[in-house]
Amino acid sequence: MNTANNSNSFLKSGLRRVLSSRLAETLTTPHGVDRYLELFNPTWSVHEVRAEVVAVKHGTADSVTLTLRPNGNWQGFRAGQFLRLTVEINGVRRMRCYSPANSVHAADGLIELTAKAHATGFVSKHLKQGLQPGTVVTLSQADGVFALPDQRPDRVLLISGGSGITPVMSMLRTLLDEKHQGRITFLHYCNTALDMIYASELALIAAQHANVELIRCYAQPEQGGELQGFFSREQLRAAVPDYAEATAFLCGPPAMMAAVEKVWAEDGLGDRLHLERFTAAPLVIDGGSAEGEVRFARSERLAVNSGATLLDQAEAAGLRPESGCRMGICKACTCRKTHGVVRDARTGELSEAGEQDIQICVSVPVGTVTLDI
Fold first, then answer.
1. Residue 96 DSSP SS3
2. Which regions of 191-310 does DSSP assign to beta strands (E)?
3. pLDDT tens, per residue, the chain with 373 residues
4. SUPFAM superfamilies per the record (predicted)?
């Protein structure tokens, strides 16, 4: 019996309206409806997108590809967008952003996510080593403006580096499913041939589709790619001489992306370059000017304001609030500030003094601040 499919049909029935009602929430307080539903099936939820891991593969030595079956709350995505994946590790919920790599037209309704397990990547290492088929994870709905436009460009240039291959892989697969006839160049950068995710599939695609050109650039020599070294204007002109005529989509390491952006900006082509990145402005924290206290109302704890971010101060006080990227992107750490002023560590902007939702990973208290934690 396919329990995930049963969960979809179950939650599409008239019971959804009943379970979503205020009466149902009242009757199941303090745990909520979902706590009882998951006793029958862990993917069942009235509102949350939950997904069962149905396959785990390792395309390279340091990567993992997860195939997920989402419940009926999943609303789909546009090729290139990302979602927020939440897993529980040692009793703490951790959230990270990943881009689906599958085509938006996948008939099986599954989601494919690929992550590189970096040496310091706490969550990515868990995905590679700790997840097994049958594990249930939580997803957000798809988000982000980095996506194929509804009017598909005639000339497409996909540029990726490392694990940044996933959103542009989704774009390529989607265009192929749509039998796109325009020219597509797939330009990918990585250290060695063994590091290239989806290497075999991309080679097969290029061999079977005359309109798809695959250009592999390896940083280390004698790897057999079409190019060697790092991105440069000269390299681009030689490999993709008509790049100025293409609509380009870019995702990869910050240094590579900055080099690509510089060329497009210098050529006045900024409006033809679309990019995705999960990096944020550096945090500016001045602990020397700290005053007041940080009050964690729900936990009934109090700490002297150290001048660090509220997330760091909460953890120092022995609390374990949910967090993800720790740089203000994923919004996993959002909580309610009930009193006080905070400064955004990225921009220096001060908040209002009243109640509001804030991201505690990038918020530094100015004086005394009270949080609903």
1. strand
2. 212-218, 227-228, 247-251, 273-276, 293-296, 301-304
3. 333 444 444 455 555 554 454 544 544 454 454 554 454 556 656 678 999 999 999 999 999 999 999 998 999 999 999 999 988 888 777 888 899 999 999 999 999 999 998 766 788 888 988 889 999 999 999 988 999 999 999 999 999 999 999 999 999 999 999 999 999 999 999 999 999 999 999 999 999 999 999 999 999 888 889 999 999 999 999 999 999 999 999 999 988 999 999 999 999 999 999 998 655 556 666 665 678 999 999 998 999 999 999 999 999 999 988 877 777 877 778 999 999 999 998 888 999 998 999 999 999 999 999 999 9
4. 2Fe-2S ferredoxin-like, Ferredoxin reductase-like, C-terminal NADP-linked domain, Riboflavin synthase domain-like
79 closest CA partner among 53, 59, 105, 114: 105
Burial of 29 per CB tally in 10 Å (0-12, 13-18, 19+): exposed
Prior bond of 221 cis (ω within 30°) = no
Do the bridges between strand 183-190 and strand 212-218 make them parallel or antiparallel, or are there none, so unpaired?
A: parallel
**287-371 domain in CATH 3.20.20.140?**
no
CA angle 287, 292, 295 (to 5 degrees): 105
Measure the CA angle with vertex 359, ends 355 and 361; round to 5°.
Answer: 135
Which amino acid appears at position 234 of this protein? Answer: E
Q: What tokens does 122 get?
A: 């706490």
DSSP label at 242? T
CATH superfamily of 3-139: Translation factors (2.40.30.10)
| CATH of span 155-276 | 3.40.50.80
Separation of alpha carbons 173 and 195, rounded Å: 20
